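Before going further, learn to read the protein records used in this course. The integers have meaning only within a learned vocabulary of local backbone shapes. To see the layout at work, look at the sequence and tokens printed below.
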Amino acid sequence: MVSGGVDSSVVVHLLKEQGYNPDIFYIRIGMEDAEGYIDCPAEEDIEITSYIAKKYGCRFEEVNLHKEYWDNVVSYTIESVRKGLTPNPDVMCNRLIKFGAFDDKCGKDYDRIATGHYARTECLNVLMPECLSADATNTQTIKQSNNQAIFLATAKDPIKDQTDFLTQLTYPQIAKAMFPIGHLMKNEVRQIAHEAHLPSADRKDSQGICFLGKINYNDFLRRYLGEREGKIVELETGKVLGTHKGYWFHTIGQRKGLFLSGGPWFVVKKDIGENVLYVSQGYTPEAQYGKEIDLLGFHYLSANIWEKADKEGRPDDGWSVEVQFKIRHTPEFAHGRLTKREDPVYGLVYHLSSDTKIQGIAAGQYATIYDCDARLVVASGMIA
């Protein structure tokens, strides 16, 4: 898959150098509109991608996944915000569109899918199938000899590493994925692009979910969720400081857009039923930070490397493993312990206890769980 950016352009260059003859696909996705769908900005992307295809003698095809994107990613975003959660459309787009709907539509005829993500894969000897995702057991893409499993692994460049955006991939998707630039720093990728005279060599990196290229995020929310005035209340005192136009326009940890004097003010809590925002003042108010995180829908990407310990322990027996983790896209890892417990409402809940307090724990976001060396992505779960 090629986007027209420097990363995916260099992927094509590297694959050709390695003796592959890849077919190039450009995915069209975007917003639903009264007359159909609004494309993400695509003209320059397609122009560059067409040039890359001609330069390297590759077949080029555009793939229309507008409906799939709307049904899976945009709808998920709207419903999550409506419930007061903080969605992660990029995580869902990777699992359901780039490695999901695209594979269903085009990728099934291919052994591998290469992308410009900053990530790697590693093959390790582990015990398998009980801890595999259920949908992985009947796929031909899984190569399991001598109990080997393919793991998603962090990229060489810690700043550009995108494993947290790939944290909901299934095992068949990981087993089929290739990440040719995962062993490179960003400056090395641009250097290769310059040396190969690629038109995207100095092109600015894209940011965020695709449909925001055409539409302001608040305008998007206003279009589907409307406006409803509510109170902004100081958490510590209960004092009403102002009003807002709907809790869905605000996320935990947000500072901008509150329009309150005497700040800085941060959103630290939301009352969905009453449409109230609670805020706290200062850069490091106690309410902004936490050390305990419950995770729902716990998902092992490849294999449970803690399977032996997991089998020996039960939620009430003190099962505990040392992990590194992230709850947002950042170069830094947090260190802590992963445990589990039985919840009367949610059933089995995995729990993260951080060694240090971390900011902006937002329900609906995904926590990515790494091994203690922060090399392998082991699992992920949605913050409760």
Notes: Confidence is low (pLDDT under 50) at residues 128-145. The chain is about 25% helix and 30% strand. Residues 157 and 375 are 12 Å apart (CA to CA). Residues 227-283 form a domain with the SH3 type barrels. fold (CATH 2.30.30.280).
